[in-house]
Amino acid sequence: MTVTRTICLGFMAVIAIGAILLMLPFSIAAGTWGDFTTALFTSTSAVCVTGLVVVDTGTYFSFVGQVFITLLVQIGGLGYMTATTFLLLILGRRFGLREKMAIQQSLDRRGMSGVVSLVQSIIAVTLIFELAGAILMIPVFAPQYGISRALWLSVFHSVSAFNNAGFGLFPDNFISYATSIPINLIIPLLIIFGGIGYQVIMEMYLWLRDRFMRSQERVVLSLNFKIAIRTTLFLLIAGTIALLWVEYANPETLGTFTLGEKILLAWFQAVVPRTAGFNSLDYGKMSDAGLFLTIVLMFIGASPGGTGGGIKTTTLRVLSSSTATVLQGKEEVICYQRQIPMSLVIKAIAVVFGSIITVAISTTLIAISDPDVGFIRILFESVSAFATVGLSTGITAGLSTFSKLVLILTMYVGRVGVLLLMSALLGDPKPTKINYPEENLLVG
């Protein structure tokens, strides 16, 4: 039982327990036993913080069922090992080397020093952001639903947004709040901070603290911070402009709104592919160009260490810097005056290649099982599942049982990670002292 297998099986166990809980009569609004496929799909979507649904969450599940979904989203957003560590901390258990190795690998950290304190910081940051989001959204929902209902709506959507899950309790998601300025600010900010990574948030906090306290010793921002922040800002700005451009005259999406409302809607739709599947427009009515742009944004996803999926912003930057290195005729990959190790370049290539293969297999299997569905919609659904986004053009509920099982596996692979899953299946790599002769071949 290797560390990677522990993590992968841990996610499976949480999904299985969640599916059982969501099948129970008191989890269903009608008070009857739930359908197994629906429960399994919803549990996987919650634990994998995806947000794809085959039923309306707000009407199909009871309040208890919605609480279970919230807990599953929280566990999935934190990560299996982080959630387990937090539970062990509450119980007062001490950590051995194996537990620290598992936490270190799940959080993708280089060393094992300070992993327990890091978990405590992650829990604190999560609670602060979710609590702040819930408090800010109460005035938005209270006039229509009353204080008690508004409180639950705010908590549910705050947890869902910060964990980049995309689960909503409204039948039309946030289409009814498409022009609400508070919703278009609070939800995107929760998504951005949740997906940008805990390490980046902590560095940002320390940097701001030193500036305000006028400390003599200034925090030196890491390369990960610079890449995550700048790539995220670029994708948000470029995504907003691109979606505004391709959907500007579409009467089914942005065409009927004022210029200010169009910018607001384009901003929201540029943020949610980062990977939280909320929507304030009907993606089923979006143009093919708009869908393809969203697919690209979803595939890139969030940043490492956050609650989002995708290949990650750092992977994109490493590959783009590698391409620039080749075009410039250099041999070292340089980014912000720092040399990127070749092992990271190889890892980035493996992540992208494995991700493309996973999406290609998922899309092909669904296309075979549901040939009547358009290709762009199937590709959209597959990328949304793999990148744990949750956006949909409305085809999820109508897919065959086989296609739903394919999406379940795709969500699982996307959440645990292609490389981590392959490592769990193949076992830890064995060192070798053999060096093979080098030989060139034609590429490109």
Automatic annotation (TrEMBL):
UniProt xrefs under Pfam families: TrkH
Membrane-topology descriptor: Multi-pass membrane protein
Top-level taxon: Bacteria
Subcellular location: Cell membrane
One GO MF term attached to the UniProt entry: potassium:chloride symporter activity
Transmembrane segments: 7-30, 36-55, 67-91, 111-138, 150-170, 182-206, 227-246, 289-311, 344-368, 374-393, 405-426
Keyword Transit peptide among record annotations: no
Record key words, sorted: Cell membrane, Ion transport, Membrane, Potassium, Potassium transport, Transmembrane, Transmembrane helix, Transport
CC terms in the record's Gene Ontology section: plasma membrane
NCBIfam families membership: 2a38
Protein name: TrkH family potassium uptake protein
Natural source organism: Drouetiella hepatica Uher 2000/2452
